[in-house]
Design brief:
InterPro entries: MeTrfase_RsmB-F_NOP2_cat (IPR049560), MeTrfase_RsmB-F_NOP2_dom (IPR001678), NusB-like_sf (IPR035926), NusB_RsmB_TIM44 (IPR006027), RCMT (IPR023267), SAM-dependent_MTases_sf (IPR029063). The chain is α/β, with parallel strands linked by helices. It is built from 24 helices and twelve strands. The chain starts with a helix and ends in a 12-residue tail after the last strand.
Length: 527
């Protein structure tokens, strides 16, 4: 049939009102057949008419943008966005999984997206790349129907980037959806036999240098490098919400009445089933807070476990790097039993305010806690030999807390380690100077990196003849629940390194040191 004949048939078929009919005899809607605008339709093409995406996905996108553009902390930005957009309940749970999951999986997602995009990912608009990561994570890691993950992500792209980006996102996500996660990993990850670090970096979504550092840390702290898969997998698992009971202000029975359950390790811990416990009265009243059990054990090793190790008058305690105040509150609450006071020092004013809030209820209850904005590296010179117990929980790379701060793995670089170790060395030196003869210093990091842990202590001890190492294992056990005390693995000592895949905590490093007691007139040391 010729084009001319087809056209002639179309012109000849009309209804009783003169409106054109199609080949099935149906009348075209509106004024379409008369050359005018289509009534009942938008001016946009069908692909451009989709609705906006859901508030959950909008919140996850805004969170990624703030983390990327403003170096915001994931654990601080998400609760605020959820409140602003009034996202709660199951939607909040979905948003949390999507936001944190996309952050953790960013490296693996980028490797897959790079195989689906015909240009380097660095050439994409950063907001569009954020959208693609969210869409890919829904397709590959969440139980979201494929059509819903794609259409909602396309709508998000249209809303936050533009119509052209929506079409691009649609095409890319359709390619991503052609294979499942395991098939994509098999395609994009380097072969483990020839490039084990590169393979693990893609499979477990960690930068190569972090994979190497954690593998070295396992070996350096007396464990097998073969545990690296378990460790990396544990760092990608969403951590349980751990609560800490402020000493003397509440008990486990009260928290159980609110829906919590007993903690796993710490004598001051409780476990929260899921979601944000921030609305619970004991939390709003400052009697309970959210704190990883590894952090609790680090503080308790000094506050409880060092009772038999301190060989000085035990009345003045120091938290040298106190912000945001979780460990300071635990220490401060335990000063009462020792008739001691606590000085909590923090360098940044806004973090000192966080410490103030953390200890306010304890202060009202009578604990002698003083907060101060000051440089911790100068305290040793300013207040030499004053404190019987000193906590030096130094700033670190956070490689042991990647479960809670997934953005840190992409933000940190090897160069950061060098800068941090200079500061860590200065802070430990200051802590030792501030310790009284016979006083105990706890050097603590939330990183297992050897350069931030064992090597720092070894470097400082080379320059000090007045310091002795203590076995931290029994002091750590002092803060462990009796039922778990006999089973907990604490290595060969003298320092203790906790691990996410072994202890279910952040990878806290705890090294106890004591300033040698002053010699007496008889030539012995004072006890």
């Amino acid at each position: 049939m010729s084009e001319a004949r087809r056209g002639g048939e179309g012109r000849g078929r009309r209804d009783d009102h003169g409106r054109p009919r199609d080949q099935q005899g149906r009348t075209r809607s509106g004024a379409r057949g008369q050359g005018g605008p289509r009534r009942g339709y938008s001016d946009s093409r069908p692909s451009e008419r989709s609705r906006r995406s859901t508030p959950s996905r909008q919140v996850a996108f805004e969170g990624l943008r703030l983390v990327r553009e403003e170096d915001s902390y994931a654990n601080l930005v998400l609760p605020r966005l959820l409140r602003t957009h009034q996202v709660s309940g199951r939607d909040a749970a979905f948003t949390t999984e999507l936001f944190y999951g996309a952050l953790r999986a960013q490296g693996r997602l980028d490797a897959i997206l790079a195989a689906c995009v015909d240009r380097p990912l660095e050439k994409l608009d950063p907001p569009l790349l954020d959208v693609l990561r969210l869409g890919a994570y829904q397709l590959l890691d969440m139980s979201v129907a494929r059509h819903a993950a794609t259409s909602e992500t396309v709508a998000l792209a249209r809303s936050v980037v533009g119509a052209g980006a929506a079409g691009f996102a649609n095409a890319v996500l359709r390619r991503v959806g052609e294979q499942d996660r395991e098939q994509w990993i098999a395609q994009v990850a380097p072969d483990r036999s020839t490039d084990p670090t590169g393979h693990l970096a893609v499979v477990h979504s960690h930068p190569r240098w972090v994979v190497r550092a954690l593998s070295d840390a396992l070996a350096g702290h007396g464990r097998s490098r073969d545990e690296i898969d378990e460790l990396l997998a544990a760092q990608n698992a969403a951590p349980a919400v751990s609560l800490v009971m402020r000493p003397g202000l509440t008990d486990l029975d009260e928290l159980i009445d609110h829906g919590a359950s007993p903690g796993r390790l710490s004598v001051f811990a409780a476990s929260w089933p899921s979601g944000d416990p921030g609305g619970m009265d004991p939390v709003t009243q400052g009697r309970v807070a959210v704190q990883d059990e590894g952090s609790q054990l680090a503080a308790l090793a000094l506050a409880l476990g060092a009772d038999d190790l301190v060989l000085a008058e035990d009345h003045h305690w120091l938290d040298l790097c106190a912000g945001p105040g979780g460990k300071a509150a635990l220490l401060g609450g335990l000063t009462v039993d020792h008739d001691a006071d606590l000085l909590a020092v923090e360098l940044a004013e806004h973090r000192t305010q966080l410490v103030d809030r953390a200890v306010a209820t304890l202060q009202e209850a009578g604990c002698e806690i003083t907060t101060r904005t000051a440089d911790g590296t100068a305290i040793g010179a300013e207040l030499p030999g004053r404190f019987s117990r000193v906590l030096a929980d130094v700033p670190c790379s956070g490689l042991g807390a990647l479960r809670r701060r997934p953005e840190a793995r992409w933000r940190r670089t090897p160069a950061d380690i060098g800068q941090l170790t200079t500061l860590q060395r200065a802070l430990l030196t200051s802590a030792l100077d501030a310790a009284a003869p016979g006083g105990v210093v706890a050097y603590v990091t939330c990183s297992p990196h050897l350069a931030e842990t064992r090597l720092i202590v070894a470097d400082v001890l080379k320059t000090r003849q007045d310091i002795e190492e203590l076995d931290a294992r029994d002091p750590v056990r002092a803060g462990v629940l009796p039922a778990a005390r006999g089973d907990i693995e604490l290595g060969d000592g003298p320092a203790v390194q906790l691990w996410p895949h072994v202890h279910g905590t952040d990878a806290m490093y705890i090294h106890l040191l004591r300033k040698r007691p002053a010699p007496t007139e008889e030539g012995t040391t004072a006890a």
